[in-house]
Amino acid sequence: MGCENYDIIVAGAGIAGIRSAFELEKQGFKVALVDHNIEKPQEKSLFLDESKFPEGTFKGIPINHIPEHRLINADRSKDNWGKKGDFSTSAIEHRPIHKKLLQGLDSAIDIIKSPILSSSGNDKQVQVNIRTNQNQTKKITANFLIDASGDTSPISRQHQTDKFKGLIDDNPLVVWMFGMRTEGSFDPSIVYDPIGINIGGTSWVTPLSADVGDIIAAGIDPLSKSRPSSHKHLFDNLVKFCEINGICKITKKIISLAGIIRSEPIKYRDVAKTKNVYQIGQAAGMADPLMVEALSPAYLIPVKLAESIAKGEKPTDFYYKWRHTENMFDYTLMSALLKRRYNNLQKGVVGSNTPIYKILTETLSEKASAEALRTRKIPVDQVVKLLSKTLFNFELQKNLIELGSIYLKELINMDVKTAINHQASL
Fold first, then answer.
1. Alpha-carbon distances of 138 from 118, 135, 156, rounded to whole Å
2. What number of CA atoms fall less than 13 Å from residue 288's CA on the CB side?
3. Measured between alpha carbons, how far is 182 from 235 in angstroms, rounded to an integer?
4. What single-letter DSSP state applies at residue 200?
5. What is the structure's pLDDT at 88?
6. From the CB of residue 246, how many other CB atoms can be counted at a distance below 10 Å?
7. Dihedral (Cα; 373, 20, 279, 264), 10-degree rounding
8. Which parts of the chain have pLDDT scores under 50?
9. 151 within 8 A of 260, measured Cβ to Cβ
10. pLDDT of residue 252
């Protein structure tokens, strides 16, 4: 098994965990990567913004660039909308990425195939208990622990210190998913969002090619109430809807796709509970809260993690970077959009953000709307044009007022205040 004492233990060998181990070893740390199921990760339905990655990142891995996006509202067809242009959106399979990253790890990294039974520590050292092949408990120690354990953050939730029996105890909103990857007939140039109360309020159909695609029934729940398997009937309805409306045709199931995606970042107050436990990837809730794009932060932010630890920065310093000053997404705005969507789904209303998307796609040029939808920022030279359209659009005004109220609450959230005070204390 190798050395029992390390500089850093990375708990979880998904994309975020492997990338973290890789980058940390490059910085000169002695690293252990621990996971009970390293070589057979769960398959996922992934899409990514190609513009965020260096050219050639996914060389050798099949990837489907998708230039068009269509939303179809099964409950209110007048809310249907679409967009075309260079949105840098692509579909890609999870396992080939994982396999390539795992093969690229340096032999200096100890890969430990074992479940993590428990973890604990103080500000100087962490201890992780694992199970050996002989079914015995073994202790490994390190200066730092990286929690890359996934969307429910199980490592941080059970990690014990002298003061805390668990670092994270929140109940975030999550996107639940129940679906499958299938062989069939798909339009490889279009990703569809067929939504409706009876087919899933945030569902999608993503083509990996003309012959293979992902059909996912999805919605939003608090983590404590999320039960993806209880939504099978919505998936069955979604499949029928897609075939009747010519979205796709299924001929053969390849693999089931079910689970959750954490859709809210963890809290500063929880990160501040230790000086040597760092959360990364979905254990930190780094995905775009609204669009659930999780691959980009899982792949790219570990570079910043390794640099931060090498500089001697605390977990709160690293958190403040990815959450605020060097954020990949506008987490505050996207969280407001997410919560407004959830509130409306509770009322039986899907497509609550449609008025905003429609005015952007129908008013702006193809290039400008693509930029606005990708970055969530409106080009300065397009603001007047949009304001003129807003003056007499009362549905949009109501929509913006509702969103503004939620966004304001997010801005004055005490956790954000804490993070801002952290910056002031540096």
1. 11, 9, 20
2. 17
3. 13
4. B
5. 65
6. 9
7. 20
8. 1-2
9. yes
10. 96
**Three-state secondary structure readout of the chain:** CCCCEEEEEEECCCHHHHHHHHHHHHCCCCEEEEECCCCCCCCCEEEEEHHHCCCCCCCCCCEEECCEEEEEECCCHHHCEEEECCCCEEEEEHHHHHHHHHHCCCCCCEEEECCEEEEEECCCCEEEEEECCCCCEEEEEEEEEEECCCCCCHHHHHCECCCCECCCCCCCEEEEEEEEEEEEEECCCEEEEEEECCCECCCEEEECCCCEEEEEEEEEEEHHHCCHHHHHHHHHHHHHHHHHCCCEEEEEEEEEEEEEEECCCCCHHHHCCCCCEEECHHHCCCCCCCCCCCHHHHHHHHHHHHHHHHCCCCHHHHHHHHHHHCCCCCHHHHHHHHHHHHHHHHCCCCCCCHHHHHHHHHHCCHHHHHHHHHHCCCCHHHHHHHHHHHCCCHHHHHHHHHHHHHHHHHHCCHHHHHHHHHHHHC
Short-list 44, 76, 144, 2, CA closest to 351: 76
pLDDT score, position 355: 75
The strand order across the sheet containing 81-84 reads: 81-84, 68-73, 190-195, 204-207, 212-222, 173-186, 248-262
**60's torsion region: left (phi>0), alpha (psi -120 to 50) or beta?**
left
Give the pLDDT score at 397.
Answer: 82
Other C-beta atoms lying within 10 Å of the C-beta of residue 216: 23
At residue 375, the pLDDT reads: 63
Q: Which tokens hold the place of 288? A: 């775009």
What is the CA 425 to chain-centroid distance, rounded?
30
- Angle CA 243–366–66, to nearest 5: 40
Q: Which two tokens stand for residue 369?
A: 């709307």
Quote the pLDDT of residue 182. Answer: 97
- Token pair of 271 as six digits: 């990160």
Nearest to 283 by CA among 150, 170, 169: 150
State the pLDDT at residue 1. 46
The whole-number pLDDT of residue 304 equals: 97
